[in-house]
Amino acid sequence: MHESGEMYLETILILGQRKNLVRAVDVATEMGLSKPSVSRALVKLKNDACIIVDENGHIAFTEKGRGIAEKIYERHQVLTEILMAIGVNREIAAKDACKMEHDISDETFDAMKRHLKKKQENSD
What are phi and psi of 60, to 5 degrees? Predict the structure, then answer.
């Protein structure tokens, strides 16, 4: 999946945590994009079997889509924490994590996650 598709899925996940029902207009507002751009992206995500959109325009994940969204969101969270742990301020860490989350290998990410966990256990 392309980075933009992952960003849409992550945004839908975050919006779904804030409010129960998510619509295309919510995604457009959150991402600062036009409604037509979001509509095109959502059609692609539907065709890729990542989301379902009901007759009222409410967006729901398929199992595949939720898995991708949760993976990207976890990467964002962990990478932000790691960057903050080495002295990057929260705002910049979150922006940089957003760029990194799409390109980092599973192996590197898992190693970083283990390192962060070990560091947290040692500080308890």
Answer: -130, 150
CATH of domain 73-123: 1.10.60.10
Question: Where along the chain do its domains lie?
Answer: 3-67, 73-123
CA–CA distance from 64 to each of 6, 45, 55, 95, 108 (Å)?
12, 11, 21, 26, 23
Burial of 62 from C-beta contacts in 10 A (0-12 / 13-18 / 19+): middle
Topology of the domain comprising 3-67: Arc Repressor Mutant, subunit A (1.10.10)
- Which residues fall within 8 angstroms of residue 42, CB to CB, at 6 or more apart? 8, 24, 27, 51, 53, 59
The model's pTM: 0.86
**61-111 pLDDT per residue, tens:** 999 999 999 999 999 999 999 999 899 999 999 999 999 998 999 999 999
